């Protein structure tokens, strides 16, 4: 069971458990994790903290895309990075096609 508060996320595991999966976290984010044990008499001090980062996730879409002609055979495309990168952006893939046609071309930008 996981409880949310304004300060921390809190979970409770059973008395014989020695593992617990925390889910619903943000991608590519560092978390500090500590534990306590409790009995009917009260709760222990917190353990030492472990620090771990979640893996990267799929980024949000790039924003503010703009395109301008720079000649008779070229277009310059500009954009803003995604608001949520969810990890290190490794590049962008541009898709383009002639309006009304089905063939799509791609370009990789690294």
Helix content range of the residues, please? under 10%
Strand content: 35-45%
Q: What is Rg?
A: 24 Å
What distance separates the N and C termini?
Answer: 42 Å
Backbone shape: rod-shaped
Instruction: Tell me about the largest β-sheet.
Output: 2 strands, antiparallel
How would you explain this protein's 3D organization?
The chain is rod-shaped. Residues 1-7 have low confidence and may be disordered. The chain has a two-stranded antiparallel sheet. Strands 3-6 form a two-stranded antiparallel sheet. The protein is mainly beta and 110 residues long. It contains no helices and ten strands. The two termini are 42 Å apart.
Describe what is shown at a glance.
Helix content is about 0%, strand content about 40%. It is built from no helices and 10 strands. The strands form 5 sheets. The protein has a two-stranded antiparallel sheet.
Which characteristics define this entry?
single chain; 110 residues; disordered N terminus
Give the helices and strands, then pairings.
Blueprint: E1 2-4, E2 9-11, E3 30-33, E4 38-39, E5 42-43, E6 50-53, E7 63-71, E8 74-80, E9 92-96, E10 105-109
Antiparallel strand pairs: 1-2, 3-6, 4-5, 7-8, 9-10
């Amino acid at each position: 069971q996981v409880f949310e508060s304004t300060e921390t996320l809190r979970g409770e595991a059973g008395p014989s458990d020695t593992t617990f999966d925390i889910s619903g976290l943000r991608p590519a984010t560092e978390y500090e994790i500590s534990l306590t044990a409790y009995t009917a008499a009260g709760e222990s001090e917190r353990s030492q903290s472990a620090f771990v980062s979640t893996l990267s996730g799929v980024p949000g879409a790039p924003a503010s895309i703009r395109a301008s002609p720079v000649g008779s055979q070229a277009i310059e495309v500009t954009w803003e990075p995604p608001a949520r990168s969810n990890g290190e952006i490794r590049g962008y893939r541009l898709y383009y096609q002639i309006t009304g046609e089905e063939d799509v071309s791609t370009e990789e930008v690294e």
